[in-house]
Amino acid sequence: xxxxxxxxxxxxxxxxxxxxxxxxxxxxxxxxxxxxxxxxxxxxxxxxxxxxxxxxxxxxxxxxxxxxxxxxxxxxxxxxxxxxxxxxxxxxxxxxxxxxxxxxxxxxxxxxxxxxxxxxxxxxxxxxxxxxxxxxxxxxxxxxxxxxxxxxxxxxxxxxxxxxxxxxxxxxxxxxxxxxxxxxxxxxxxxxxxxxxxxxxxxxxxxxxxxxxxxxxxxxxxxxxxxxxxxxxxxxxxxxxxxxxxxxxxxxxxxxxxxxxxxxxxxxxxxxxxxxxxxxxxxxxxxxxx
Length: 290
Description:
Layout: E1 4-7, H1 8-17, H2 20-26, E2 29-35, E3 42-45, H3 47-63, E4 70-78, E5 81-88, H4 95-98, H5 110-115, H6 122-132, E6 136-142, E7 146-154, H7 161-168, E8 173-178, H8 182-194, E9 197-202, H9 208-215, E10 219-223, H10 231-240, E11 248-254, E12 269-273, H11 277-289
Parallel strand pairs: 2-4, 8-9, 8-10, 10-11, 11-12
Antiparallel strand pairs: 1-3, 4-5, 5-7, 6-7
Helix pairs in contact: 1-3, 3-6
């Protein structure tokens, strides 16, 4: 974490404004409610990660709220915490799905994915960024009426950053999996999670460089034939950006791809579908330690 003092009101307003045009295009009303006194406006935390938390919540709210809907961002404090609340009048989330909403490699039902594509890391990333601050996130939702997400972030102290960060780091390392095939992703996630890796499943790659910069995984597994993007462009971007250039990238390929290695430029290794568990674990371990 990069702990700095910042203005809660400025961060909240700028976060909301970044979605104003998209919301206006959908006919969705954005509102903000800052319950902060002048003395409560300054706060110490990692503003870049707080901004990402709000961006993820607001992005989902705009995505899942239809014309004439409303999205509200509320911010308030107590002496030791700040609370951010994003409430929408969108499609809502069934109770059965709320139980797995924040799991690192769960996605909502496929019909929802087809209707509202591109959620990316979504709430899994949001939960991890909240937990970096030793905070919490809760959801209340009713299908057909909307959802309300409440995030609590404790006041951060620079001398406590290292210990709090270490306490939530994965045992073996963090892996980002960019894969839009659900059966393949589920198998890889199960195998790596069982080996004590923290796996984050991404289903589209439009913001992957920014997400990788924030999460700093030990490796990225990237589907060679993404429906939602060009894998070669993605690996080129990752390797040319200083903050992500040292992260290992593995290509996830089909057997028929092995006739040519032309498409492997920039990748550090490759895996062949169907996945062989020992090969997967061996290659990840070697790259993580290199």
